[in-house]
């Protein structure tokens, strides 16, 4: 059974990888053997702190080889692992630590743990299948981030570390991931999942210094990375104006906001056949993926997010997409009411409207929820509206999302002032940033006399100027 429990396949890969480079950080190149030793030392140190199966750890780490080793070591000892992404507000951070009853592990702690002597016994994954392995927190734009709880059984069913489980589109992506740029946070589900895919494909994780595109691709001769819609648009503009040498690039995985087919075709034309358009959620992992070859061969594929792999089940109920994936989360951590709304009889409500075309391509048509995707972060309109309305100068607040060249989508606020009052945009932005984080801050704040009313008698936010 141990050979099947996450992260045993990765531990085995590193234990037998010898001098193969697996993590490059500037001038420092870490081999598989060195990474395995780091993981064993940190695992021994975590056990010395009393951390093992069922015990919570919260990782507040940068992007580095020791941070990656600490992440894998926490799974190896069977802990309940949550990653704290950058940009959390102080109230959100306090909420997560108290809600999970977790031991905080930061970069300084990892440095101390690396001085622990590794056990002489082989490192064997200690996770119990029914235990929670990972809590992946959402953006927190509803106030407090929701934690998607994934068991060790679910993580062990994932495709990333097993080449024989890769769907065809993932196998094509894996063949291009010799040098995968990592940046931002290893707490990111996408960043870690495709990092594991890279190692299983024989590639190397490369820490992005500098993190900006296209400089990081050029400097590190990167073959693959993840990119948000806004950054993709910027990269296309930069390449048209002042082309950089991107000849090393084989794959850009686009995540986050919906991608317009025309802009996607332009990106393929300017950057070449390197764009992989993916669709997934924190609750589900990858739902579907479309390859450059598929998009170039078919306009229908270009307007879709690809064919879901056969291991994923798809159900359309009154136009809303429900999915089941092998490695999906099972609930929201300590949040039974929202769990009941989203996790339904083994299915996950995506709250996205979709359809399948005659070729089996999945097309996204809209959302059933009032949500805006800013730099791949879900931002809910309701909490922003309620936060803005706490200002005495604001009588009514309405928030919408609109396409944005820099962030994919952006938040725009419309305010009806209180009688005799003039709201201060700077103070309102500061208030939203403090309570909900920077992604929720309105790009524009517009004063209106009244909100348009639809035929139903309800506010019609689509009619806002």
From TrEMBL:
Q: Where is the AMP-dependent synthetase/ligase domain?
A: 19-333
Q: Name one Pfam family in it.
A: AMP-binding_C
Q: Which residue intervals define the domain AMP-binding enzyme C-terminal in the entry?
A: 384-458
Q: Which GO terms describe its molecular function?
A: acid-thiol ligase activity
Q: Could you tell me the superkingdom of the organism this chain comes from? A: Bacteria
Question: What name goes with this protein?
Answer: AMP-dependent synthetase
Organism from which the protein derives: Winogradskya consettensis
């Amino acid at each position: 059974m141990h050979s099947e429990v996450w992260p045993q396949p990765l531990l085995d890969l590193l234990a037998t990888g010898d001098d193969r480079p697996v993590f490059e950080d500037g001038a420092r190149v870490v081999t598989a053997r060195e990474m395995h030793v780091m993981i064993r030392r940190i695992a021994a140190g975590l056990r010395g702190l009393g951390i093992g199966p069922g015990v919570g750890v919260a990782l507040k780490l940068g992007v580095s080889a020791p941070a990656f080793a600490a992440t894998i070591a926490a799974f190896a000892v069977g802990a309940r692992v949550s990653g704290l992404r950058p940009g959390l507000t102080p109230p959100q951070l306090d909420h997560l630590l108290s809600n999970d009853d977790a031991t905080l592990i930061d970069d300084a702690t990892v440095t101390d743990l690396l001085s622990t002597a590794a056990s002489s016994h082989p490192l064997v994954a200690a996770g119990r299948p029914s235990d929670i392995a990972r809590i992946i927190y959402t953006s927190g734009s509803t106030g407090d981030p929701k934690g998607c709880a994934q068991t060790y059984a679910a993580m062990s069913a994932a495709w990333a570390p097993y080449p024989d489980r890769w769907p065809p589109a993932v196998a094509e992506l894996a063949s291009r991931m010799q040098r995968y740029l990592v940046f931002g946070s290893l707490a990111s589900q996408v960043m870690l999942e495709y990092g594991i895919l890279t190692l299983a494909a024989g590639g190397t994780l490369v820490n992005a210094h500098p993190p900006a595109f296209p400089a990081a691709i050029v400097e590190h001769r990167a073959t693959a990375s993840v990119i948000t819609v806004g950054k993709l648009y910027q990269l296309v503009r930069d390449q048209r104006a002042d082309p950089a040498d991107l000849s090393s690039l084989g794959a850009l995985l686009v995540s986050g906001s919906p991608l317009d087919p025309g802009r996607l075709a332009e990106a393929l034309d300017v950057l070449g056949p390197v764009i992989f358009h993916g669709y997934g959620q924190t609750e589900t992992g990858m739902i579907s993926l479309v390859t450059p070859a598929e998009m170039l061969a078919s306009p229908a594929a270009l307007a879709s997010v690809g064919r879901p792999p056969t291991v994923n089940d798809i159900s359309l109920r009154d136009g809303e997409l429900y999915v089941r994936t092998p490695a999906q989360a099972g609930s929201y951590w300590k949040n039974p009411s929202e769990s009941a709304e989203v996790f339904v009889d083994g299915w996950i409500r995506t709250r996205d409207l979709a359809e399948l075309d005659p070729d089996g391509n999945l097309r996204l048509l809209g959302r059933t929820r009032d949500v805006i995707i800013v730099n791949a972060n879900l931002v809910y309109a309701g909490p922003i509206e309620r936060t803005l309305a706490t200002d005495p100068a604001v009588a009514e607040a309405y928030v919408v999302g609109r396409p944005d060249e820099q962030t994919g989508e952006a938040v725009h606020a419309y305010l009806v002032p209180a009688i005799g009052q003039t709201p201060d945009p700077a103070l309102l932005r500061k208030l939203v940033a403090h309570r909900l984080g920077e992604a929720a801050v309105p790009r524009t704040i517009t004063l209106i006399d009244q909100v348009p009313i639809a035929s139903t008698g309800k506010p019609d936010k689509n009619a806002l100027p």
